[in-house]
Structures are given as structure tokens and as C-alpha cells.
């Protein structure tokens, strides 16, 4: 029988360049570029790659909990386009090109069109927002995002009276997105929100984390973050925002409707059919020597969002 | 066919013993040096579960390999493989009740009753205990013919183990499907032998009655 040797990662932790070192490398490159040494030698693409600073003013709603280490936030990801292993997005996503990048806004809007990423970056002032992030798999993080409310974009494109929902489509590039070669989900990935959810001040159009532009594995160059819903609702690497009258067909809901509802609000009282949602493991904190912590209703954002669902049976609309 | 003698067999057994400890050593090292990634409890759970299935398949592979090659001494390794499967299953179970659930008996009971993948996994582990307990030479002698009957439960245990893996993955069933394929081959071989033996017995019976 052939031995199947399974390694958790192709890159040993000792081989990963410490952040302090690669920051120096970037500083060196910037100096070199400034001196005109490297510029003629590099394709334009290479210059866009790599974490550029992106910071905002302190925004509202920020959690005061301990933030999950940068390394965990950027190496433990669910981004099935780049494979189903948590470590795979960090390995494969860096090859995805995020410049140029355009986001098409269409559907039930008066002023739709195509927005270049540079325009989106300048559309509204950036804010720092520290949010809890709760995955449907019962783990969680605390992440300092950088972005502005999605409502800023929505107001500018003027939804028509018929717009009731917003759908977000993730880029589909089979060349770099090795996971899309398998029919795991109905690619491209589509997620959606009700218009009032999308307009909620908590819903963040997100461009960065930890004071830099988003790493690709976290959904560069632009994603949404909807902190009171399970993580998969927060679509990454968005290329299209469509306003619709009908509830959009969303990837996980289509794949397993009994397990992943359209709403997918964080709710400790409604279990996933295959596991409990009552508790969660905070990555980087709840490990070998601390039990999992209790999951909070709406991921702790009940005061802000509970009224959106007034009168709804959350067991039925899970 | 080459058959190892006493001392050679001892060396082979020692080597296999050490080899089967490698995944465990890797986990101990990983925990000590925080090298298991962002979610070490999940890493330990997955690793111990994966090696349990691997070793169950290896245990079930001994007989087909022995019959195919005539290397009868392989049978002498089977108990160790089986006991190592139990060792990793016990670690897997311990990880679940301790590190995952923190001995929250109510939550564990709810899991076992409500979640099919935990129900089959839990059942498989319970069934594995009497097999490990009756693995000694003395028990084998004491149970006589019924020893084999008890130990045939390994077929069911392996099927439950693969189901447990299949039912827990979210979307990508590649790995459970590979285990299912290997297991189907291992169990299929036994089914084939059984049918062949039945056919032989029937033929013999027909020959006797007509002669």
C-alpha cells in the first residue's frame, strides 16, 4: 500500500520571512524605485503587489477585544476559490492580479456603471473598524479592517424603488483560482444581502486590514464585511454588485439550503444541522488551555441590528 | 518467499512501532513549539482522525497483501497496526471530549444523539474498545473461535470511520472518497474470497450428491 504522507503546510514556519524583514525589503524597494533603479526593470504589475499602507480614522462600532494576530488572520482562511485547506489561500492567492480591477454596479440602480478600484478607494474617507468575525465553522477572530460603509457607494449609485436585494459576485479566474477547477460551489461565488442590511452602517466596504491593503487571501482588492453574519456572507474580491428585486441565489445556500440560509445571522440558538453554534473558538486565544467561548446573538451586534429582523422567526429564516 | 526469523522480525516490529509513533511525535512537537497553525486543536483533531483511518486501512490491508505475496509473516504485524489505530482513535476521542468540549457532558450527549457524523464516529470508537481489550494472546486463546467473530467488527468500524469523515466535511469530499475507495477495495477482496469459497463448497456438494 502506498504511504500517503500528509503535511500540513509546504512552507515550514521557519522559512516564512518575518514581517520586520519583509517590511525592510519593501522599504528598500521603495527607495530603489525612488532612485529610478528598479522601475525600468519591473513590470507594472509587480509594483502593485505587496502590502501598501492603508489607514483610516477610528470609526464607530469597534470592538475593544484583543485582536487576532496578523499571521493568523492572513494564513487561516476560507476562500474556496484557492482551495479548501485553510492554508491554501495564503499559498495560491498571491498570484491573483488585483490591478487593474473594476467593479461593475448594475441592476436596479439609476447611476450604475464600472468603478475602477482607484476610484473606489477615494470614494469616501477610510475608517478603522475592529470587528468580531464569526465563521460558520464555529471559530472566530477579531480583525481591524479598513474601509467605509457600503452605504456610501449605494447612495451614490441611487437604487431604484424596485431594488430590494444586493448581490456580490466574486472574481472567477480559473488560472489563479485553482479551487474553481472543482465543482465545489456554483462558480462564480455570489453572496447577497437585503438592501436594508447592505445599507446598515455596520456593513463595511473593505479595502484593508491591520493598516495595509488587503492581502489577496483576505479578499483583495475589495470585499464586504458583514460582522453580524457568518463569514461566508462577506463576499471577497468583488467584481460585480447587482441590485435586484428578487432574493439572489447565493453560493452556499444553493449548495446546501438546509445548512446555509440566505440570512445566516450569527445565532447561538440555531445549530448548523451538523454542529452546534452555541460556542466558538477564538483563534489565537482559545486553544489547548482554555475552553471555547459562548457565541453571542448577532455576534454581539444585537443592539445595532436586531431591529432589522423584528417579527421574523429566526429559526425559519436562519 | 522470504520470511524473517526471530531477530529480524523483532527489528521489523521495532521499526514499525517507531514509524507509527511519528505522527504522534509530530503533534507533540507541534503543540510544544506552536507549529500547528492558527487552530492547533483542529489540527490535532484532524490529524489523529486521519491516522486512525489510515491505520484501520493498513490493518485491513495485511490479509490481502499476505495472500497476494505469500508473505505470511505480515500477519505478525497486524496486531500492532490495529492497536495503533486504537491509540490514534483514543487520542482523537480525547481531543474531542477534552479540548473541544471541555467535558461538557450535556453538549457531548447532544452531539452524539443529534449529529449523525458524531453518532457513527462515537459508535466506531466504542466498538473498537473490545477489540483492543481482546488483542492479547491470552484473550485470543480464551475466546477461541469467537475471537475471530468479535474481531470481524473491524469491517463495520472502518465503514463507520469513513462515514464519519464523509459526513463532517463541508463540501470537498476528495479525501473521504479516497478512503472509501481504499476501504471498498479491502472489503471487496474479502467479499470476492467469500463468494469463491461458497462456489467451491457448492460445487463440491453438487459433485458429492450426484456421485
Helix fraction of chain A, binned, reads 10-25%
Care to count the β-strands of chain A? 13
- Given the helix and strand composition of chain B, which structural class is it? mainly alpha
Q: Stretches of chain A where pLDDT falls below 50 for ≥5 residues?
A: 6-10, 27-49
The tally of strands of chain B reads: 0
Number of domains of chain A: 2
> Helix count of chain A?
9
Most extensive interface: pair and counts? A-B, 35 and 35 residues
By oligomeric state, this entry counts as heterodimer
Main sheet of chain A, how many strands, which sense, barrel?
Answer: 8 strands, mixed
**Major sheet of chain B, described briefly?**
none
Order of helices and strands of chain A: HHEHHEEHEEHEEHEEEEHEEH
In CATH terms, what is the architecture of the largest domain in chain A? Alpha-Beta Complex
Low-confidence stretches of chain B: none
How large a portion of the residues of chain A is in β-strands, by DSSP E? 15-25%
Mean of the pLDDT scores of chain B?
A: 94
Distance, first to last CA of chain A? 45 Å
Give your account of this protein's structure.
The complex is a heterodimer of chains A (318) and B (211). Chain A is an alpha+beta fold and 318 residues long. Chain A has two domains: 16-48, no CATH class; 53-309, Oxidoreductase, molybdopterin-binding domain (Sulfite Oxidase, Chain A, domain 2), CATH 3.90.420.10. Chain A has nine helices and 13 strands. In chain A, the strands form two sheets. In chain A, strands 1, 4, 5, 8, 9, 10, 12 and 13 form an eight-stranded mixed β-sheet that branches. In chain A, strand 8 (204-209) and strand 9 form a beta hairpin. With 211 residues, chain B is mainly α. Chain B has one domain (6-210). Chain B contains nine helices and no strands. Chain B has helices at residues 6-32, 40-69, 75-100, 105-114, 116-133, 137-143, 145-151, 153-168, 174-210. In chain B, helix 2 packs antiparallel against helix 8 (153-168). The longest helix of chain B has 37 residues, at 174-210. The mean pLDDT of chain B is 94. Chain A binds chain B through residues 1, 4, 6, 8-9, 13, 71-72, 75-76, 80, 84, 86-87, 137, 139, 182, 184-185, 255-256, 271, 273-276, 278-279, 281, 283-284, 287-288, 291-292, and chain B through 31, 35-43, 47, 50, 54, 57-58, 61, 65, 99-100, 102, 104, 107, 110-111, 114-117, 167-168, 170-172, 174, 182.
